[in-house]
């Protein structure tokens, strides 16, 4: 019997698992995919919002501002990339200037610090590649950018190190409520737990509906993006927003923590919860919209396009709390933007809910830090030589675009929450994330995975269990 069963291994589930691992609890996390951070967490804007956009008095506003303040400490403890680069909301007209004044006033009420209204000249001094016809901007110094999948992986590594059990490839097919516990059935097995925390993202409503009549609905909203080369990434230091609309924060331009430039998303309400396709029409719309902010972007430097799904609920706020019809079942649903920014604070909110139900006894041996990951490209010349002398595999470059070595790839596989796919390697140490998108390093990554996992090459997948890369030999032994 587990004390807590968390459904979903995205960033919200990761923050909750790590926070609760500070206490003497038996915690199990179930994830339907073959890796953590494999849904919304891996396909979003990677923005840590300051907190001026969410309506005052909402959970979104409260948890965004608190969550934002937690990132500096978390990133140091868990060794994931985070930069406070600040953000600008541009105004293109006198009406927009009034709109950003409303945003500043809302931010002040929400408790956001370091907000100011800039003139056109002040904004252009910060970002010279903005269009010259802007009127001004709202400047939020506390805005940031993060590596969301590195963050989630590190959170789970630390949670597992502190006793949490993480089981992948465990898609839930049914849940039943017994007298004092739940029975959770997956395609592989079944589990008992006193409490369930539902962090299933765009499928959270389907999980809740296994136990009771629907109390909310989740509708996926798709957003498409361009990923630009690192040459384009040098053009902007801040995250550039346009005035928000009814369907979101609009098309943004932002540097990433790895030095690329990200442009998007659009907002398209869809019905299919697995539709992550991109389309020329939507991408052209993003280009046209982004051109309002800057016309200096060279789209010949794009290296990838992708889409992500956001969990848009029929409520006007996050859904966090014990389900009124299901004692012991805690919903953490409708976590759309600013969900990534709020995730660490959502974990505190869930902990407070649990504290009213069960005794939370702090562990005396909780380990807040993880072992630092080796990133050879960030080491000094002397440190590199010392490491390579100890293990020559750190001197063998696998990915020329991102300067990733064989030693780093092997580390990514052997970590506590290690990679099992080509994209899993990419999310941990970035081979395949550069200009050639894996053309050079892909085959070698497959060979290393096969060797480390004792698999045949045709058993190695790109991402999902069905995404096979090779099927059979074309030469040699049959």
From TrEMBL:
Name the record gives this protein: FAD dependent oxidoreductase
InterPro entries registered for this protein in UniProt: BFD-like_2Fe2S-bd_dom (IPR007419), BFD-like_2Fe2S-bd_dom_sf (IPR041854), FAD-dep_OxRdtase (IPR006076), FAD/NAD-bd_sf (IPR036188), G3P_Oxidase/Oxidoreductase (IPR052745)
Pfam families according to UniProt: DAO, Fer2_BFD
Gene3D superfamilies: BFD-like [2Fe-2S]-binding domain, D-Amino Acid Oxidase, subunit A, domain 2, FAD/NAD(P)-binding domain
Occurrences of domain BFD-like [2Fe-2S]-binding (ranges): 397-450
Residue span, FAD dependent oxidoreductase domain: 3-348
């Amino acid at each position: 019997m587990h004390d807590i069963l968390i459904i979903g291994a995205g960033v919200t589930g990761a923050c909750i698992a790590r926070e609760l691992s500070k206490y003497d609890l038996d915690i199990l996390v179930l994830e339907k995919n073959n890796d953590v951070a494999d849904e919304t967490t891996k396909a979003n804007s990677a923005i840590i919002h300051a907190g001026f956009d969410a309506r005052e008095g909402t959970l979104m506003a409260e948890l965004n501002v608190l969550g934002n303040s937690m990132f500096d400490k978390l990133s140091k403890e868990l060794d994931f990339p985070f930069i406070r680069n600040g953000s600008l909301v541009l105004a293109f007209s006198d009406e927009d200037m009034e709109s950003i004044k409303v945003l500043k006033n809302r931010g002040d009420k929400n408790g956001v610090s370091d907000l100011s209204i800039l003139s056109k000249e002040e904004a252009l001094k910060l970002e010279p590649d903005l269009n010259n016809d802007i009127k001004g901007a709202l400047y939020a110094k506390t805005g940031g950018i993060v590596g969301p999948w590195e963050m989630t992986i590190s959170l789970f590594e630390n949670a597992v190190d502190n006793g949490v059990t993480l089981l992948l490839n465990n898609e839930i097919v049914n849940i039943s409520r017994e007298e004092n516990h739940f029975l959770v059935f997956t395609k592989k097995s079944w589990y008992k737990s006193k409490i369930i925390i539902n962090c299933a993202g765009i499928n959270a409503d389907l999980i809740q509906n296994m136990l009771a009549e629907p109390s909310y609905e989740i509708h996926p909203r798709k957003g498409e993006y361009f990923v630009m080369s690192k040459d384009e990434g040098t053009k902007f230091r801040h995250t550039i927003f346009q005035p928000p609309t009814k369907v979101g924060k609009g098309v943004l331009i932002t540097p990433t923590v790895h030095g690329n430039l990200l442009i998007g998303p659009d907002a398209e309400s869809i019905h299919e919860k697995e539709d992550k396709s991109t389309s020329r029409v939507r991408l052209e719309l993003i280009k046209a919209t982004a051109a309002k902010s800057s016309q200096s972007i060279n789209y010949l430097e794009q290296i990838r396009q992708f889409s992500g799904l956001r969990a848009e609920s029929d409520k006007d706020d996050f859904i966090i709390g014990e389900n009124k019809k299901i004692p012991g079942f805690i919903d953490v649903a409708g976590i759309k933007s600013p969900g990534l920014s709020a995730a660490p604070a959502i974990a505190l909110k869930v902990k407070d809910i649990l504290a009213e139900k069960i005794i939370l006894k702090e562990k005396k041996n909780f380990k807040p830090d993880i072992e630092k990951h080796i990133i050879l490209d960030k080491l000094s010349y002397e440190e590199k030589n010392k490491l390579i002398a100890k293990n020559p595999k750190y001197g063998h470059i696998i990915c020329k675009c991102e300067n990733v070595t064989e030693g780093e790839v092997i580390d990514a596989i052997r970590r506590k929450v290690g990679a099992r796919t080509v994209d899993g390697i990419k999310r941990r140490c970035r081979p395949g994330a550069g200009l050639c998108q894996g053309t050079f390093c892909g085959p070698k990554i497959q060979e290393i995975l096969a060797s480390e996992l004792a698999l045949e090459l045709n058993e190695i997948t790109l991402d999902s269990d069905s995404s096979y890369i090779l099927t059979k030999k074309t030469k040699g032994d049959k």
